[in-house]
Structure formats: structure tokens, C-alpha cells
What does this fold into?
Amino acid sequence: MKYTLEGHDRDNGVQEMLISLLPDEPHDRVASLPENADGCRSRAWEENGSIFASAQIRMGERHSEITLSNPVPQETDGEEYKRVLTYTVKSAVYQALLPLLDHKPVWGSMTGVKPAKPARLAIREGMDRAALDDYLREHYDVSENRRRLCIRSAEYALAAEDSLLPRETQLYLGIPFCPAKCSYCSFVSNDMTRWGHMIPPYVDALLQEVEAAGELLRTHAIPLGSVYIGGGTPTTLDEAQLDALLSAIHRAFDLSACREFTVEAGRPETITRGKLDVMRTHGVSRISINPQTMNDAVLRGVGRCHTAADIEACYRMARESGDFLINMDLIAGLPGDDDESLLRSVRRVAALEPDNITIHCLARKRGARLYFGATGVLPAETLDRAYAHLEGLGYEPYYLYRQKYMAGGLENVGFCRPGTASHYNICMMEELSDVIALGSGGVSKLCSENGRKVHRVANPKYPKEYLERIDAIAAEKRTLLDR
It folds into this structure.
């Protein structure tokens, strides 16, 4: 949808709202719109101590217009003024577009990646749960089920925040290689059939950065709360490479305060008993075994090289090999899947009794259609049935996040059995503490003011550039906290 702005500069806010509500089309700002042309006209102004915002939207023969206002805050030139202006502008666009939509969005006018974060901050500032529920409903028009998810995740985040040691930091290490790239994947991951020759030099470079990061935390006497090795698929490393990496982590870091050590094993064709033994020997406490779906036809369609039976066999092997907490990922909205197939996958995975189950909603590339079920739309009601099944088995939602162009405008939710929530996932997603990220594509996050301010420092995105710059990257890592 084309859109224009008049009297304000809240371009990101208008575009975020349009993307959230109309994810299947591009949204471009233009200088003007002809009379009766399709598009959105967003206008803002001040009058009698209030900020006013109007939105006029035309979609073919349908047309809607609304004007909203909010009091001008006392700080007329600060962040609070910008916040109120943005909220008023976005709310006007939402209210004007709402009657033109086929379905009311379950997240209402709430945009952004971390819906539990404002809920956590509101509770921390003294708002009780009932008042927060009312606030999410009245302020953002969030549906009842999503308000509940949001508040429960915020409560887990508050508990994690209260448990943090002074200056506690989390550690992430990225292994950007996979056996083959899935058709839906947007991560920086490299097909081993083409890039496998880069794994040995990549591991050597990563060990160099591990040593530098260890020196950084020792210099500043910073406790390490968790270690998370993600990807890609970390178990594309062979046993010797995995052993070398885990040994280097133990040498470089004081793990006495480390409450969890995760390796995202992921794809069953890369998991062997020998690798599980290496992980157990080095104190790895959490692993992932990720089916994505238990529908073999859907797996083949998206380029996965395993079956549902392979997942179940791998899961049994992991349970026999060590006392790991196990997470299993599913993706809702995969091409070729449908409502009943998704629910069968949820039931089949839950029957294995993993400690955590994460349900992701497929985030589409811009402009790509989602072919899910008979209508091509992933309904919120289907996710609600999946969530209800898990909660009936004793799982609780403990963290969630959203992405642009996400199927059905929905969310990703991690469920856990009581006492098994991932500390790293909560801290990283809610930006409760610093995260030092190693490897290509790693983005370190230096957080302050309860996550209100986050400074990001990114490593090179691709392994080739990472290898070329590793000496400079290691040197920069040693001084990361000096800036």
C-alpha cells in the first residue's frame, strides 16, 4: 500500500502497522496520493494541548477514516513526546484499517518483536496483572489469548531478571553450517555440500575468538550465566571439532556460575551417539532435536533430509545417552501443511515428553505467499488448539517473540515444563543482560536500563569475511566493554 505522511515523521511507525496488518503486499511512502487513489494518508498535528492523528485509507471501493488524540506529555521535546506521537499515529492507522480487514488481528495494534517486554516493564513499575490485562486490551486491542501469553512470558522474564548476578552475561556461539538449506530458511547458514571445506578453518577462527572473549570476561570479572551454541546446525561439526570447541570454552571461561549449557543439535541426521557423549562429558545440559513437522511429505517438500521416525529414534538415543533437557521445535505454516497435520505434529512431539516445545510461525520473505491449508492462511484458532493441548499436558508459555511477515500475524512461543525454562532464551529475547556473541553473524548486545537501551555490535555476516577479519575481530572482542 502506498502511504503519505503530513505533519509528522513517524515513517517507521506507519510502515510497521501496515506490514503487520497487510503482510502480503509492499508498502511504499510517496510524496502524494491522487484523489480517490488506493493508499493511506497519515496526518498529525497539535491543538489545545493534544496530539491529533488522522488516517484516511482507501482500498478499491472501500474507504475508512478516523481521527484520534492524546494529551501532549510534559516533556514536549523528549522521548516521551515521540512515544505518544508514534502511538497516536499508529493507532489511527490501525483503527482506520481495521474495518477493511477480513479478520481482526489477534495482536491488535501491537507491533514489534518483543510483546512481553512492555508488559514486563509495566509490572516492574508497579502495574498489577489485572491492570496490565486491561491496558493491553484497551491500549493495543490485544485478544484475550495473546494477553495471557504476553503476561505469562513477562512473569517468567521477571523471575529470570531477579535471579541475575551483578553484571551477569550470556554467551552465544554460532556455527553457520547445515547439511542442506531448507527452503523456508532465512538464516545465514551454509550448505555443507558446497561449503563444508570451510568448517575446519572456521572452527580454528572461532577458537581464537573464544580465547579473546574469555579474556574480556576475566578482565572485567564478569560471571557467565549461560552458554548457547546455535546455528545453522552445530552438530555439523564432527566429534573432534565439537570436542575442541567445548574444551576451549571450558579453558577460556569460568563456568562456576553457569546455570545452563546448550547445544542446538537440531537435525537428527547430524546427531550421533559419539557427539552426544562428547556433549555429556563437557557438561552440556540442554540440546535441541528439531523436527519442524512430523509430516514426512511436508519435510520432503521443504528440503529436510529426515523423517518423523528418524526424529523419534534420535530422541530415544539422546535420552539414553545423557541427562539432557531436550527442546523440540515445530514450525506452523510450512507449505503443504494444514491445520490437522500441524496438530498431529504437536500431539506426536508432545507424546515424547520433551522438556521444552517451541512452536514457531513461519516468517515469510517479503512478498512471498504462504500456502497453508485450504485457504493459504494460518488461523490463530489452530495455534490456540495447539497451545491448549500443550498446556493441558502441563507445559507453560515462557517466552515469545514476533517477526515481520509472520504467518497469520502470529508469534513464536516457547513452552516448558515447570522448572525447565531456558535462562538464555529469556535473557536474550527480553534483553535482560549483555549477550556476547561469537562467530560469523553473531550480534553482541550490551543492554542497560532493564533492556530499554541496547547497543549492538555485529560480527561479519558470512564465514569468508569472518575468517578474513578474525585477528581484528578477536582484538575488538577483548575491548568490547571498554566503549
Q: What stands out?
A: The first helix runs from residue 11 to 21. The CA atoms of residues 369 and 388 lie 28 Å apart. The chain has two domains: 1-102, 164-482. The longest strand covers residues 50-59.
